[in-house]
Q: What sequence folds into this?
């Protein structure tokens, strides 16, 4: 079948909510070969017509009922659906009287029951939906699961239970879903993840527990989930990382941001993790060698984070970084240390991160960089981006920074001296110095002599005078931003070369 034919077959029957609507108007949309029908606000029509489908003339497979306040199970007579949307029917689905009719659609693969007033799931309510792969129960009022609520859902892959009123999940609440790969439990009131909650879901790969009240996770909560890759626990009340040691041995993406962690202790078993988010906690210190541990049996260091690529420690209370803080992170590419209280950096604080591409130190209290020789001490040829915006820097020397940088940001500092002589060799470099207290770089021995510089930012109250020798050697310079300065004098022939 070509695309043109398919386009005409998949037609949406759009009915406007009008007092003039009647059964005849509704039935007229049920022409042969139409597979999709969307109905919204058709109270009168659906109330007057308990059975309005003629199965001999109708090929409907996808139906969407939204904002339908009067819905009778007989409405579904004569249909064989594979997708059903009954969302936004708050007055209709306060209970499960409609489920008997829905259970008759044994070929159903997608069922949307979101935005209703469902308060609990009942025993065997989906027992005939053996082909269902997606079930959306989000935005309801579910606070309780009856036993075997999900019996029969042997093909279910995606389950959305977010934005309900769940306070706990018992060991057998989520049984009978052996193929489940994705579960969303965001925005509930869950306080504890109990043992063996997911024990029957051996194919589970993603678990979302964001914006709950979790303060405890039992050690066997995720037992035997060998395919688990993503765990999102941000915006909870977790305090101890040690309690998570036995859980995430196979996880690659772990989000623990916006919790109550105060320390980052040694974690021994997160060997597969590639992304770790610890932002928005209360971490004030990271002990040296936190990312490795010493095996007392063979007396060797074990590098447990060899696969870690992305680490976020933003919005914490860190005040210093030593040369042993990131020891063992040999594969790290992106690190975010922004919005902390860092005042000093060890001269070799990145010595163990040879593959680092981006370093974010924005909004800290760093006053000096003099002790760091970025070319000799950092030992990274991969570093491309450094963000030092909104610190307390008064002097900088660009000559020590790595040659491979393509972007460096010094905005919102207190610069009054800058040394750019013998700087970068990268022709694609972008330097940003806007919004600083930088007064002048006009001394004759302080000219800009980087021949490969192509983009330069010096805007917002940086400059008072511009002399021609400032840019005399920048033969490859393409763009200069000088907006919103306090320039009083520009020497003749400044930009003629």
A:
């Amino acid at each position: 079948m070509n695309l043109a034919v398919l386009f005409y077959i998949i037609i949406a029957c759009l009915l406007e909510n009008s007092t003039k609507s009647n059964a005849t108007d509704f039935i007229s949309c049920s022409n042969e070969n139409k597979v999709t029908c969307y109905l919204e606000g058709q109270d009168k029509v659906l109330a007057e017509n308990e059975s309005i489908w003629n199965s001999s003339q109708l090929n409907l497979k996808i139906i969407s009922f939204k904002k339908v306040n009067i819905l009778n199970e007989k409405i579904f007579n004569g249909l064989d659906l594979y997708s059903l949307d009954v969302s936004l029917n708050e007055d209709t689905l306060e209970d499960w009287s409609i489920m008997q009719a829905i259970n008759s659609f044994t070929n159903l693969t997608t069922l949307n029951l979101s935005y209703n007033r469902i308060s609990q799931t009942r025993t065997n309510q989906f027992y005939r939906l053996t082909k269902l792969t997606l079930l959306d129960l989000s935005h309801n009022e579910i606070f309780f699961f009856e036993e075997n609520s999900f019996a029969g859902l042997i093909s279910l892959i995606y389950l959305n239970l977010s934005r309900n009123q769940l306070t706990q999940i018992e060991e057998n609440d989520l049984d009978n879903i052996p193929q489940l790969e994705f579960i969303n439990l965001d925005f509930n009131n869950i306080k504890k993840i109990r043992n063996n909650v997911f024990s029957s879901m051996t194919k589970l790969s993603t678990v979302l527990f964001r914006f709950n009240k979790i303060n405890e996770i039992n050690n066997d909560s995720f037992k035997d989930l060998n395919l688990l890759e993503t765990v999102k626990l941000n915006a909870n009340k977790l305090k101890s990382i040690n309690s998570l040691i036995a859980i995430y041995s196979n996880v690659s993406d772990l989000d623990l941001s916006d919790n109550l962690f105060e320390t980052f202790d040694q974690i021994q078993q997160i060997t597969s993790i590639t992304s770790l988010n610890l932002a928005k906690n209360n971490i004030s210190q990271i002990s040296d060698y936190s990312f490795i541990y010493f095996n007392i049996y063979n007396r060797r260091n074990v590098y447990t984070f060899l696969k870690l690529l992305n680490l976020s420690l933003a919005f914490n209370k860190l005040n210093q970084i030593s040369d042993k803080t990131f020891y063992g992170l040999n594969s790290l590419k992106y690190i975010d240390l922004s919005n902390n209280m860092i005042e000093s950096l060890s001269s070799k604080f990145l010595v163990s991160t040879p593959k680092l591409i981006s370093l974010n130190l924005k909004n800290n209290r760093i006053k000096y960089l003099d002790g760091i020789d970025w070319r000799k001490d950092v030992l990274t040829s991969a570093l491309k981006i450094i963000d030092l915006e909104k610190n307390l820097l008064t002097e900088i020397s660009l000559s020590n920074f790595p040659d491979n940088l393509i972007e460096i940001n010094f905005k919102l500092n207190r610069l009054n001296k800058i040394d750019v002589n013998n700087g970068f060799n990268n022709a694609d470099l972008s330097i940003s110095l806007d919004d600083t207290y930088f007064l002048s770089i006009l001394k004759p021995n302080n000219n800009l002599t980087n021949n490969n510089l192509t983009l330069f930012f010096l805007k917002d109250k940086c400059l008072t005078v511009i002399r021609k020798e400032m840019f005399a050697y920048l033969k490859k310079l393409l763009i200069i931003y000088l907006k919103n300065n306090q320039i009083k004098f520009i020497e003749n022939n400044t930009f003629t070369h």
Summary: Residues 432 and 457 are 5 Å apart (CA to CA). Residues 1-32, 438-446 have pLDDT under 50 and may be disordered. The radius of gyration is 31 Å. The longest helix spans residues 3-9.
